[in-house]
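Changelog-adjacent note: as of this version, every example in the card shows the full chain rather than a window. The one below runs 348 residues end to end.
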Amino acid sequence: MTDESPYLSIVAVSRNDDHGGELLQRMQHFIDSLFEQCNRYQIDTELIIVEWNPPRDRKSLFDVIVWPKVGRYLTTRIITVPEELHNKLNFAEKIPLFQMIGKNVGIRRAKGQFILATNIDIIFSNELMEFISKRQLNRGIVYRTNRIDVDSDIPKNIPLEEKLTFCRTHVIRTNLKYFIFNFSNLEALIQEIIKSPPLIGYYFKNMMYKFKIPRMHYNACGDFTLMAKEHWDALCGYPELEIFSLHLDSLFLMATFYSGLKEQVLHPPRETYHIEHTIGSGITPGTGQKMLFKRLESNHIPFLTWRDCVNLAQKYKKESIDGKIPVTCNKDSWGLKDIRLPEKIVGD
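Full-length structure tokens:
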């Protein structure tokens, strides 16, 4: 990489706790694929992994990931938020990782002209990376794309092309802007409702709330939100609510809309592949969501509902005047500003 600011910063948050099952393996696929694509398409990129609240009894991510040899186009920075900072937040004993605050830590310290916030179990399509490599991203635009959920049994140590072929041929669901517009998604949803009829009320209420908010691609937006660094800075990053991270990414998209930014959805084959995790560990339609909500409620862990999102979106709307004043999601101290955090550069 050159000494100039990279074109792209990619920010993700993780910790070595096996969240969702086989976390390190999913993370290895993410890193290996990204390394090869950045070098193939010559994208000056920094990958920032924020290691949040590392478990005391496990090795750090720096020590357990098999890092590719240092390449010309990708630099990896690991920024650590230690346990003592984590413990200052509300519900720290119940929520081991505050994902959106962690992403803000990386976004605040990113050096790229454009910043992509994503997660550690994502593989980008070659077509998507080739699109970014053309260096034609525009300011004033929030880039989104579809997420394709794929089987987690991706063979280890296979070439990138075989990995992508596996993803394309082992699809579980497709997360479009409008989820039910995909026939297989709709069919699976109907089967879930047949098994658990109360789900129909939950989905109906969600649909009603969505009529009250901007028409944006909220589906799996935490896995791919890309825009100029200046916009991330103007909005002060994701809302730093000390709660479970559910819907905070969607709330941020609403803030971009009310700040006058335009959404551009990238169409297939410019898409992302998400390696499936254990059911209930994150947001998956139907039974997975029901299990997650039950776990959160039984452990008294706070989270946003869609109704909460609608109410907060109305608040954002009042703060902005025709998109001329950016909606600020946080105070100026967002992203743990002025706190010196341990950092390692892979290959340094």
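Structural remarks: The first helix runs from residue 23 to 40.
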